[in-house]
Amino acid sequence: MLHIKIHQMYQQSMKVAQIATALKVSRPTVYKYLKMTYEDALHEFDGKACSRKKKLDAYRDWIIAWLEEYPHLSSAQVHDWLLERYPDLSVGSSTVRTYVKEIREIYQIEKKRVVRHYEAIPEQPMGKQIQVDWGETRQRTKDGKMIKLYFIAFVLAHSRMKYVEWRERPFTTKDTIHCHENAFQFYGGRPSEIVYDQDHLIAINENAGDVLLTNEFQAYVNERKFRIHLCRRADPESKGMIENVVKYIKRNFADSRVYRHIEDWNDRSMRWLERTGNHNVHQTTKKRPAEVFSVEKQHLQPVLSLLSFESIRTESIARNVSKDNTIRYRSNRYTVPIGTYSSVKKKMVFLEVTEQERLLIRESPEGEVIADHRVSKESGKLIQRRDHLRDRSKGIEELKQQVLTYFEDREAASDYLGELSKRYPRYRRDQFNIIRDVATMYPSHLTMALEKCSQESLFSANDFRDVVHYLAILADDGCDTKPDTERPKKSGIQVATRPIQAYTDILKGVTAK
Q1: Which of 173, 164, 123 is nearest to 350 (CA)?
Q2: pLDDT tens digit string along 22-33?
Q3: Does the pTM of the predicted model rise above 0.70?
Q4: How far, in Å, CA of 79 to CA of 84, rounded?
Q5: How far is CA 358 from CA 317, 332, 347, 371, in A?
Q6: Alpha-carbon distance 509 to 118, whole Å?
Q7: Three-state DSSP class for 133?
Q8: How far is CA 239 from the centre of its chain?
Q9: What's the rounded Cα separation, in Å, for the pair 214 and 172?
């Protein structure tokens, strides 16, 4: 196929360099195939296939299938997948790399590379430092669905010995502390310094080197007595080592691997660390992390005593509060008290599910319960409590009392407003606002309007307003409703009139006799 493609492109007046670039082959290869006939190329291919057997030929179909489905796979990842499927396979990484390169060239499977640059950092002495960071991936399940997974990664700065732990939900501070304890057990000790990014799980703020940790993590640091080194914001190069580990976990272990359940995923992750992550030669140190760690382990400080607080054993779930003062849990929305949401800073609460299927919501992992709901078995529901709703009755009652101050007969006015509340329960505030506006503009007509509306059963703020306007108009026009002293005097102007004959002449009519 390569011979046919090269000759076809050459007949289309393409240059050798263009053909080599398009087919991802070298220019000498293009020249070689241009000089060969189809029969010569076929004979050479058959001869090579018969005479030169390669160690990975037995796994060729698997490798081709993986590369065709996931073209971005690296040779190191292909190597790990082979070892996972065939644990007894003994083959070097360079052999796999050469074989994968050949497969890519034959089948024209291009690999897209993403290049990221990091600043070199000095080597750390043994047992001094661990770097920690968090990451997340999206994995395909055996049912074909996508699920988001979260992980925390540790790496010893000297030996590059790695540890990783996964969750199906976002990490909390308790989870972070619990994973630290597991990592110390994995390493057989702890370093004197741990490097972190400015993550909200451990740090509240950092100002010119003054670090303010969360209360829970500060208590943990005080008990374990290790130093904290917090990186500057938006400065991944200062912790490029752990950044590369996070990338390595995503691209070598997690990428395109099928997820079953979290216990299986964590178990496969640990076996990957033993088989690949901590076994392969590190490209910077040119040593195997597991072998260097056997020496560095002696320089770690022992972690023997148990923690005095057992809060790390209980897990809580962190959730952000939406602007409508609700949180999401298992496809449902649960309310929290009005005012919990903050538009200034993202508000996070912590959930705990009890054995009685109660959902407890706290503002801090150990704080007071601000909401208590029964866990719903349905989906897409809003689970709401009355005490979480806005108390509208208080504001309406204050408005009613304000309106009553405009009336002389407050008892009659209170009865009238009460009737409005019964007839317009959803629009009480609007009804009271209309009457208040009218009372402000026409205070002298309120008593008469109230009597008229009560007698005629006109129980509507709009009717009340119309009555007041009518009374005001009558007062301005000097109608009988005004006292004689307030009636305007008649003017002495005489109005001219025409005889009826003038109109009949205009209309060409005849005067009736």
Answers
A1: 173
A2: 887 888 888 988
A3: no
A4: 9
A5: 14, 14, 22, 10
A6: 108
A7: strand
A8: 24
A9: 11
Residue type, 215: N
Burial class (CB in 10 A: 0-12, 13-18, 19+), 11: exposed
The Cβ-side half-sphere exposure at 153, using a 13 Å CA radius, reads: 27
What stretches in the chain show pLDDT beneath 70?
45-52, 112-121, 204-212, 232-240, 305-316, 343-346, 389-394, 477-496, 508-513
The position carrying tokens 């691997």 is 257
Q: Are strands 348-353 and 317-320 parallel, antiparallel or unpaired?
A: antiparallel
**In this structure, are residues 80 and 272 in contact, taking their beta carbons and an 8 Å threshold?**
yes
H or E element, residue 501: helix 500-507
pLDDT tens for each residue of 334-388: 998 887 887 666 678 888 888 778 888 988 877 788 889 988 888 788 888 877 7
Answer yes or no: are the C-beta atoms of 380 and 387 closer than 8 Å: no
Reference 278, options 130, 414, 160, 168; nearest CA is 160
CA angle 233, 237, 238 (to 5 degrees): 70
Amino acid at 276: T
